[in-house]
Amino acid sequence: xxxxxxxxxxxxxxxxxxxxxxxxxxxxxxxxxxxxxxxxxxxxxxxxxxxxxxxxxxxxxxxxxxxxxxxxxxxxxxxxxxxxxxxxxxxxxxxxxxxxxxxxxxxxxxxxxxxxxxxxxxxxxxxxxxxxxxxxxxxxxxxxxxxxxxxxxxxxxxxxxxxxxxxxxxxxxxxxxxxxxxxxxxxxxxxxxxxxxxxxxxxxxxxxxxxxxxxxxxxxxxxxxxxxxxxxxxxxxxxxxxxxxxxxxxxxxxxxxxxxxxxxxxxxxxxx
Length: 272
Hints:
Elements: H1 28-40, H2 77-84, H3 91-96, H4 102-114, E1 134-136, E2 142-144, H5 146-150, H6 153-160, H7 164-169, H8 171-185, H9 192-204, E3 215-219, E4 222-225, H10 228-231, H11 235-241, H12 245-261
Helix pairs in contact: 1-4, 1-11, 4-8, 4-9, 6-12, 9-12
Protein name: DUF3014 domain-containing protein
InterPro entries: DUF3014
């Protein structure tokens, strides 16, 4: 549930006995919006619509025609914001879109999720304001406080409103940008479609816990999941798990809808 030995992955789980106010980390918000924001930017479809090339007018056949410069990824933010804002009427989405270098952030987040890595380094602005909390029972049992799950209700609600068909129609305009960003970090020959498919499948493999409360147990100054199955999940999967059962269902339902609408290539099923 936490990764105390990794300095790049701050734990969301507070020290035992603390109020948890200093533990306001990103958690499940990053996972949901890492994939969801990528879809919101209209970057995915099985095959892009054909683009008709228009030959430039060349006055001197002996001189090569100038190639129009491609806008840099950071310079594309305004265009991306305008297109992505069509995905949902939720005001919070507009606030998230004010971040810079959106295409690189989202591409990196999806790539991280596909590898099971936390995307918090690139989507830290989505972190919840309140800290992680637990409830200690009279029998010394410890469960995650439902208020910890509720911190992600807004993220799940916004993600649940994303229009998959709008995302699909936006693919053509933004495909060159996403390919450029993906090419900067992906192994040679790996397509973004395959990366996205793996990311979605990785999140769909997260089990929805029975009941509203998840048992945790102390491990040193921190807490881990009492269930070996849950504790064995990847960091990316644990972020989704922290959103709580109700929000997990919302996120996974939307991921399945997007997966079907975008015609993504299938990947082998994985276990949690």
